[in-house]
Amino acid sequence: MRCQVTVSWGEHTQYTFDLEEVQPMPHELARQWLDQQFTEMECEPLRPTGKLLLADKVLVVAQAAGQSRFSQEAYRPWANAFARAVSAVLAKPVVRIDVPSLSVSY
């Protein structure tokens, strides 16, 4: 089964993580990892109500991490962990995160 996470910063700048041969991250561990990143990066909820959906959390963590965490080899372990966590918490085989448009699609 195909399993892929793509993080995009525009039409010509995207980073794709193929997770077919990668050990899946357990769902609860993935939630905890994203929660930790959200807190460490001092992210804010997207919605004024303060309600935070998992897709919103994924999006704001990617946004706060910035393009460098996905493009630089030094951050490759972090980017791979992010992709594994996204795949686990959203439980979708293909996820596309478009940071400029603030959208997550499956």
What topology emerges from the helices and strands here?
Layout: E1 4-8, E2 14-18, H1 27-40, H2 54-65, H3 68-71, H4 76-90, E3 94-98, E4 103-105
Parallel strand pairs: 1-3
Antiparallel strand pairs: 1-2, 3-4
Give the N-to-C terminal Cα separation. 15 Å
Uncertain residue segments: none
- Could you give the order of the helices and strands? EEHHHHEE
Q: How much of the polypeptide forms β-strand, as a percent range?
A: 15-25%
Q: What best-fitting shape do the alpha-carbon axes yield? A: globular
**Going across the major beta sheet, what is the strand order?**
2-1-3-4
Helix content: 40-55%
The profile of the biggest β sheet is: 4 strands, mixed
- Tell me the number of strands: 4
Q: Return the domain count.
A: 1
Structural class assignment: alpha+beta
Number of H/I helices: 4
Radius of gyration: 13 Å
What are the defining features of this structure?
106 residues; alpha+beta; four-stranded mixed β-sheet; 42% helix
Give a verbal description of the structure:
The protein is α+β, with helices and mostly antiparallel strands and 106 residues long. The protein has one domain. The chain has helices spanning 27-40, 54-65, 68-71, 76-90, and strands at residues 4-8, 14-18, 94-98, 103-105. A four-stranded mixed β-sheet has the order 2-1-3-4, covered by helices on one side. Helix 1 (27-40) packs across helix 4 (76-90) and helix 2 runs antiparallel to helix 4 (76-90). The longest helix has 15 residues, at 76-90. It is globular.
